[in-house]
Model the fold of this input.
Amino acid sequence: MKKKTLVLVLALAMVFTFALSSCGGGGSAEKDEEQVLRVVTEATFAPFEFTEDGDDEIKGFDVDMMNAIAEDQGLKIEFINMEFDSLIPALESDQGDIIAAGMNKLAGDRAEKADFGDTYFESDLMLLVKSDSTLTSIDDVTPDMKLASQIGTTGGEYVQTLEKDGKIAQGVVLNQWTDSYMQLQNGDVQGVVVDKPVGEAYLNSHSDIAKFVGEPFGDHEEFAYAVQKGNTELLEKLNTGLAHMKENGTYDELVDKWFS
Amino acid sequence: MGVYLKGFLIACRGIPTTVWVSIVAIVLGAALGLLLALCSQTKSKVLRVIAKLYVDIVRGTPMLVQALIMAYGVPQLLQSMGSSFKWSNLVIPAIIVCGLNSAAYMSEVIRSGIQAVDKGQMEAARSLGMTRGMAMRLVIIPQAIRIILPAFANEFVTLIKETSVLGYVGVVEILRRGQLWNASSFETFPAYIGVALAYMLLTIPLSKAINGYERRRARKEAAA
Done:
């Protein structure tokens, strides 16, 4: 009996020591080593950032671009996946150093909350509908319809404005693009307002389900990465890295890889 | 300060949706819960197993998962089988899930209420010539209701808070209002403090009312 108790106590002691040492160890190791910059993103935005087949690995244009910039500038980065509307708060609360999430720097009050870098991609909004839909453009929507888009995006604001103006019944603003596609597929909404390259990536694999209609619309978008307000040193490094990428052809390679 | 007030007011605009989803769901939950509780009390083994299985499944899975299955999974499954089924409004699966969820918890509450009524009551009723069903309906359940009322109201408070997961399927309730505002303004702290206050505006008066009821009842019982 006594022996058993002793073993139990020893085992518990080992567990605690291990737990404590692993916390402490992690902390000091982080300080000793070169700082790893935390790049926050939201990985349902193919081809900019997405995951595949239940894999944790985030891939996409933004990932390759940030890795190329980091290599060029001798920075160490790691990607952290979170909700899109948490990205800017994450920078503000120092839970991330860089946002690379196909974020439109012209939208809303974003530029007041974070410092955006040079534009690396330009886009417009498109209307995605089911392949058997009779809608032919965003101007055809009627007050009984619902359109979906993602929270915190230009498209999300666009559908909310349509709802406010009484042009549609509801602007359904969801956390993930995949939710918007799901609602379109299930018939919960009649259309999805999405950034052109992102909708194209979806159509590449789902052309039997959906199609684009009409011309691009909405405010013009400029995608840029962002850093914490006032972190000009890092922002300049990123901008220099991006400029190098554009000069040496890496940028065009990535555009070919992800957008063709 | 103005930004906090704004956050609170924006969250408050979600109150009607949260409240009516909660009310419809609790009514649905109470009805189904009573049925389940009665099933679990019958002599029929099949009914007892069904009731037990239902409660285990619902209590053993997160409501968010149930909501996603009901709102997105079910239509996709039915459509893949050639049906043209779709929810006319996603608030419907949201209410169903809240109701089904609540039913599992309510059935446990009601069962404990029925069991808390003195056994002698059933025996006395039966000896007066009532059938089991009559005794349940006329003697046991009325007393059980009084016993479970506080637990019932607590379940309602829980349900109000749990409806916050419905934002994930596109229902714009209190939390979602706050999230949407945060997404455009990035006033994270005021947005979610406003959301918290809006929930408290509903739950605290309700909890206070339950406490008051319990105190009054305790006094009455002490006097009797």
Residues 188-223 of chain B form the longest helix (36 residues). The mean pLDDT of chain B is 91. Chain B has nine helices and no strands.
